[in-house]
Amino acid sequence: MEQVLSTVHCLSSEIQNSKILLPTAINLVNSLKDELIKYRSEEQFQIIYEKAKICALKNNIPIERDDERNNRLRQKYKPSKQFEDYFVMSTLGQSKITQSKNSTKKIKTDVLYDVIDR
């Protein structure tokens, strides 16, 4: 994440310069967009994810495997008594249990892409 922030900070500092010309500013913005697109690649995500796992292990933070997390989060669904006489066609908020099946993909979309896109 430091890479993303430092890249954006460099552009921000250069654009704030009063002597910058418009074509130079446009080139800097275009190069930043290209760099951010590279950060969205699978290879870059794997590099960042491996660094995060190493950091977690150094700080004694346990890393759950995907199947362990799914078993722990799986609960029996018991509908509320309010819905006994109704036909329910939605998940009633139970979607987080099924969405957690691939946590690395979830990290990629919920964390990395949010940082890059904002």
UniProtKB/TrEMBL annotation:
It comes from the Eukaryota. This is Uncharacterized protein. It comes from Macrosiphum euphorbiae. The lineage of its organism: Eukaryota, Metazoa, Ecdysozoa, Arthropoda, Hexapoda.
